[in-house]
């Protein structure tokens, strides 16, 4: 089954118009946006080690999903996972401390940007690693906590990993409460999806008899309304691939953007941030400055902390 969610069009301009958000949704979107921008700034100044992949442009995906997932559900995130974490916990200081290796780090500073474990939330930078694990957890949940589900985020490029298909097979066969969220931003590092994927994500899900839901909208309310009944079905053991057609606004990691200018321009034109500012200026400006200031404060606070003192022997 493939379902399509059409974007709402502004009757005057013909351009998709974003519906007004609840305050907490807007605040969360802005928190993720300013967190990611801050990270790139800190990396640019040489203040951070390791690497990072921001979710700039894709923030609305976990925000739309947030109220559809409960505390009993597991979330498996990937290398581009800061938004997933912030949508789950709202904990910018713990995440930034983790990335900076400072006191208060959510995993003692040893996980960094990509490897976080907190309660029922896990992320990994290894593509394709989490989906089979999520399938196993979904099987466990079906037996021990009926009604709970495992949600796993993967990118379009990750459909090149064979483990994805083993997991899809078992999810269908064993009717697992597994929600596979695909953030299809049309590119994997520097390879456009069209250059590496035969067929479609929908076709691949269909090959296993797994439901597929295509989201082309960037409107949080609309996305949520469309997904709500489908997520309820996942809880009853009907796995789902929810594919978001989205846009990576920033580089793959840091300073490694190989896309032609017109592709970057298209991502900017689709950016929810600019669109929401235009569609709802009063609402946008009421929160944008304060959330930006909040993130500045978090960054100053975390940067002033001593290093995290995690020890394997503790
Ligand atoms: C098994 C494995 N191979 C290669 C990499 C290096 N790598 C990190 S992200 C990435 C591209 C991922 O593309 P996609 O799944 O589309 O996610 P996106 O980065 O676009 O969000 C690659 C190849 C990796 N992390 N794991
Ligand atoms: Mg991608």
Automatic annotation (TrEMBL):
One of its GO terms (molecular function) is oxidoreductase activity, acting on the aldehyde or oxo group of donors, disulfide as acceptor. It holds the Pfam family E1_dh. InterPro entries: DH_E1, PDH_E1_Alpha_Subunit, THDP-binding. One of its GO terms (biological process) is pyruvate decarboxylation to acetyl-CoA. Keywords: Oxidoreductase, Thiamine pyrophosphate. It comes from the Bacteria. Its cofactor is thiamine diphosphate. Residues 31-277 form the Dehydrogenase E1 component domain. Transmembrane segments: none annotated. SUPFAM superfamilies: Thiamin diphosphate-binding fold (THDP-binding). This is Dehydrogenase. The lineage of its organism: Bacteria, Bacillati, Actinomycetota, Actinomycetes, Streptosporangiales.
């Amino acid at each position: 089954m493939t379902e399509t969610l059409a974007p709402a069009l502004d009757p005057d301009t013909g351009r998709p118009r974003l519906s007004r958000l609840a305050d907490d949704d807007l605040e969360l979107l802005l928190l993720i946006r300013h967190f990611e921008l801050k990270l790139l700034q800190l990396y640019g100044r040489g203040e951070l080690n390791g690497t990072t992949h921001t979710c700039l442009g894709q923030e609305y995906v976990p925000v739309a999903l947030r109220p559809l997932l409960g505390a009993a559900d597991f979330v498996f995130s990937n290398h581009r996972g800061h938004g997933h974490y912030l949508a789950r916990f709202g904990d910018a200081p713990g995440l930034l401390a983790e990335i900076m290796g400072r006191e208060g780090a959510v995993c003692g500073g040893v996980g960094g940007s990509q490897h976080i474990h907190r309660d029922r939330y896990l992320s990994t930078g290894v593509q394709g690693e989490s989906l089979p694990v999520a399938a196993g957890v979904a099987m466990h949940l079906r037996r021990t906590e009926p009604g709970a589900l495992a949600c796993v985020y993967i990118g379009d490029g990750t459909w090149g990993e064979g483990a994805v298909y083993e997991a899809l097979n078992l999810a269908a066969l064993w009717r697992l409460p597994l929600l596979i969220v695909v953030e299809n931003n049309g590119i994997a590092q520097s390879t456009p999806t069209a250059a590496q994927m035969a067929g479609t994500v929908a076709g691949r899900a269909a090959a296993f008899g797994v439901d597929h839901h295509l989201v082309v909208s960037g409107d949080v309310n609309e996305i949520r309304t469309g997904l709500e009944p489908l997520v309820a079905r996942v809880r009853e053991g009907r796995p789902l691939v929810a594919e978001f057609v989205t846009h990576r606004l920033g580089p793959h990691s840091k300073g490694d953007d190989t896309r032609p200018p017109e592709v970057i321009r298209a991502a900017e034109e689709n950016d929810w941030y600019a669109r929401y500012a235009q569609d709802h200026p009063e609402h946008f400006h009421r929160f944008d400055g304060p959330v930006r200031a909040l993130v500045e404060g978090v960054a100053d606070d975390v940067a002033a902390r001593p290093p995290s003192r995690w020890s394997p022997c503790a």
